[in-house]
DNA sequence: GTCCTCTTCC
DNA sequence: GGAAGAGGAC
């Protein structure tokens, strides 16, 4: 038996919107600790890991762990039917093959419920090793999204290099080359404008821009994004969901030796 | 050696956006007097002449005249990467085959640079004769753009006739006919709303609306547009760029005798 | 693929 | 509050 009530229901919609272009079907796992989703994207290049803590919910009850396989496109359709201020309640039976979403308008004058069919999905539960990252950059999510979008109009890949002074994004293509440097800034008036760089050692990694721009769909979820990098290991792009959990993306860097347009290594 | 720093960097973007649909590639000429661009549109019907004075720049240095051939589509891509408040600096070496654009955010916490490849373009440097125009109409740029857009949904050509009382725009098509008359108004409270007609003798000329609507992409550059006309000569459509220079378009009138759908004479 | 709406940024 | 870009619908 699962029952979870979330006042800030629009959160769910943003999470699903951020992920549905990368993964078409996924298992959403529920346990007493909350909701989580872990999946490779459809082209098996990047990895998505989402967690919403049980305590983020107004009411949360999950008698025993369950895994609910869903079409994320369908899930997105259902969540789109919720008003932006609606309170969302999820319900599922332990052995059912459906999950029910209930939407209540804040004024309580409208209640809708949607029953979504579940499906069996082979889950490849990849353990994500806890890494000690060499460089962690926290910057305004919107600014980061803008940079990814701008650079993707110039080139296909980006080199992200973190030094103590700042983080530099570099790309090149037919048009020419482009560099964007964002300086560390821990003293901005508004906390939203701050950029913080936590560096053990400088690192420079190359990534496919199309995945980074896709990850950036999560921008509405958070004011800041955190890029955590270590040489030759996947970058972790994290959007912290205010007091609730996180949405993390992992993408392996392109290794310079094998860049014969052979494209896209899995993490 | 070229180095030019422009605080109001968004200006450049507006100029390029206004022109890029008419000319795909163009030479941008730089000399100690500033930047200029002169080109026929792709279909060789209209002529574009832009000038930005050296004194419009915060810092301007151009050791010897140079001509930089660019894809305006690529230039537009690069300029789109500038924030709307960014300070723009251009740099080029005398014999280089690239030009570098540097964008600095006002708070100086983000710096980007874009290197754009230059190309060889045959320039047909047409002298534009200084004409004594019979009629000069200065009117709000937005109002003029609206008229062009509205009329182009009715017909393909417009007759612009200037008399001492006002300027009349006439078109007709399958739908019917349309006339828009704008009266001289030199006493409007706001200077932006004024329309001034300077007339030596009345004149009425016929133009292809598709070019006029295309020219009107320059509207964001200026509060007013000036139409200068003389019988049987090209109209000059001028957007004065505040304290900086101008963007002028020239379009030959359709001559009534030969209007057997023979379309589009060059100026 | 195009149009229209919605959101976001100015 | 308006315009431009992104996303959704037909």
Automatic annotation (TrEMBL), chains A, B:
<dbReference type="GO" id="GO:0019985">
    <property type="term" value="P:translesion synthesis"/>
</dbReference>
<dbReference type="InterPro" id="IPR022649">
    <property type="entry name" value="Pr_cel_nuc_antig_C"/>
</dbReference>
<protein>
    <recommendedName>
        <fullName>DNA sliding clamp PCNA</fullName>
    </recommendedName>
</protein>
<dbReference type="Pfam" id="PF02747">
    <property type="entry name" value="PCNA_C"/>
</dbReference>
<keyword id="KW-0539">Nucleus</keyword>
<dbReference type="InterPro" id="IPR022648">
    <property type="entry name" value="Pr_cel_nuc_antig_N"/>
</dbReference>
<feature type="domain" description="Proliferating cell nuclear antigen PCNA N-terminal">
    <location>
        <begin position="1"/>
        <end position="124"/>
    </location>
</feature>
<dbReference type="GO" id="GO:0006272">
    <property type="term" value="P:leading strand elongation"/>
</dbReference>
<feature type="domain" description="Proliferating cell nuclear antigen PCNA C-terminal">
    <location>
        <begin position="127"/>
        <end position="254"/>
    </location>
</feature>
<dbReference type="GO" id="GO:0043626">
    <property type="term" value="C:PCNA complex"/>
</dbReference>
<dbReference type="InterPro" id="IPR022659">
    <property type="entry name" value="Pr_cel_nuc_antig_CS"/>
</dbReference>
<dbReference type="Pfam" id="PF00705">
    <property type="entry name" value="PCNA_N"/>
</dbReference>
<dbReference type="GO" id="GO:0006298">
    <property type="term" value="P:mismatch repair"/>
</dbReference>
<dbReference type="InterPro" id="IPR046938">
    <property type="entry name" value="DNA_clamp_sf"/>
</dbReference>
<dbReference type="GO" id="GO:0003677">
    <property type="term" value="F:DNA binding"/>
</dbReference>
<comment type="function">
    <text>This protein is an auxiliary protein of DNA polymerase delta and is involved in the control of eukaryotic DNA replication by increasing the polymerase's processivity during elongation of the leading strand.</text>
</comment>
<comment type="similarity">
    <text>Belongs to the PCNA family.</text>
</comment>
<dbReference type="GO" id="GO:0006275">
    <property type="term" value="P:regulation of DNA replication"/>
</dbReference>
<keyword id="KW-0235">DNA replication</keyword>
<dbReference type="GO" id="GO:0030337">
    <property type="term" value="F:DNA polymerase processivity factor activity"/>
</dbReference>
<dbReference type="InterPro" id="IPR000730">
    <property type="entry name" value="Pr_cel_nuc_antig"/>
</dbReference>
<comment type="function">
    <text>This protein is an auxiliary protein of DNA polymerase delta and is involved in the control of eukaryotic DNA replication by increasing the polymerase's processibility during elongation of the leading strand.</text>
</comment>
<keyword id="KW-0238">DNA-binding</keyword>
